[in-house]
Amino acid sequence: MLILAAVIALIWANFPNSAAREAYATISETTVGISAIHLNLSLAEWAADGLLAIFFFVVGLELKEEFTTGSLRDVRRALVPILAAVCGMIGPILVYVLIQVISGSGNYGGWAVPVATDIAFALAVLGLFGKGLPPAIRTFLMTLAVVDDLLGIVLIAVFFAGSLNFIALALAVAVIALFGFLVQKRITKAYFLWPLGILAWYLMHLSGVHATIAGVALGMVVPAIQRKSERESLTHHFASKIDFYSAGFILPIFAFFASGVNVVDTGGFREMIVDPVAMGIYLGLPLGKMLGISGGVFIMVKLFKLKLGRGINMLDIIPVSLVAGIGFTVSLLIATLSFPASDPHEPHSRIAVLVGTLLSAIVGGAVLAARSKWRNRYAVRTEIHTSMSPSD
């Protein structure tokens, strides 16, 4: 659904008929809401600031589970993928900055766009093409992507906040704390929690901090420890209730509005490809991630003697680091925040995210398949050699 929505939007926004292109732009820019309370947003803004907060609530739930009962519970065991995630953010930033320096563009506004990893897409590509790799590689990628998401959220909160309204921010924190108190007491009725969640989102929106941060914060205060009387933890319970709507409706709607980049009226695809800003993004995602993650892991393993997961070696890290360049959701969001809508680099940055994600998926999938094939052949040869060896 997500890919389909993105493809439909891209085709519609670049349809040969100019009236059709204008119709898409009109829909995206249609303003809905009440200006008196600062909620007169376009439909595209409602998708990015409003609906996406529900997706980030699910992300917050997943982060809470990982920190409490999952792969991030033991920091020592998770140290390599945690540091790999940090290196995997530094790599794309360096690639982006280097391209701006070499080209002389001096436009560093999109530095944060290629830093994100889309967990769902990356794990899907790994599951499809990496069947011969050790199971620990999935844990490595998932841990890396979770930390990547967390750091991406921090970037959004710190670098893309407007002028702060500290009273609204304090009230938002108070409402989130009340939400946390209620769920800790297992008061989970929708008529209590939904109004509090919406109020927290609205206050965060008023505060100048990007409103999706409210979703993450609300998810993080939900308890992840399952009580003896409970069939499942509250984080898992809420995620299972919302995930269908998040993946099936919210993300496709966001993708529909974020991916509909009018390339035809902004100089064409060729101009986008040679734009240093776009180049920094679509090369930063696959190349920056690969260099950052693989290089960081190599240094950690060779110089600092840290251990990878069971059965993983350096040659397994390279395809996984390429797959980590699948940015999509969070990268598209950061692209819309990095440049004003009137800036010609804004549509270029969004189309560059799509190109970079596609490159990461294709190249990463191909290298994963080759590595899996080699591992399977090696396993068969080892098994044959073992079976033919004389027993004692």
UniProtKB/TrEMBL annotation:
The gene is nhaA. It comes from the Bacteria. GO terms for molecular function: sodium:proton antiporter activity. InterPro entries: Na/H_antiporter_dom_sf, NhaA. The keyword Acetylation does not apply. GO terms for biological process: regulation of pH. It catalyses: Na(+)(in) + 2 H(+)(out) = Na(+)(out) + 2 H(+)(in). Belongs to the NhaA Na(+)/H(+) (TC 2.A.33) antiporter family. This is Na(+)/H(+) antiporter NhaA. Keywords: Antiport, Cell membrane, Ion transport, Membrane, Signal, Sodium, Sodium transport, Transmembrane, Transmembrane helix, Transport. It holds the Pfam family Na_H_antiport_1. Residues 1-19 form the signal peptide. It is a multi-pass membrane protein. Na(+)/H(+) antiporter that extrudes sodium in exchange for external protons. The lineage of its organism: Bacteria, Bacillati, Actinomycetota, Actinomycetes, Actinomycetales. NCBIfam families: NhaA (TIGR00773). It is found in: Cell inner membrane; Cell membrane. One of its GO terms (cellular component) is plasma membrane. The keyword DNA repair does not apply. The chain crosses the membrane at residues 41-61, 82-102, 108-129, 150-179, 199-222, 242-261, 281-304, 316-339, 351-370.
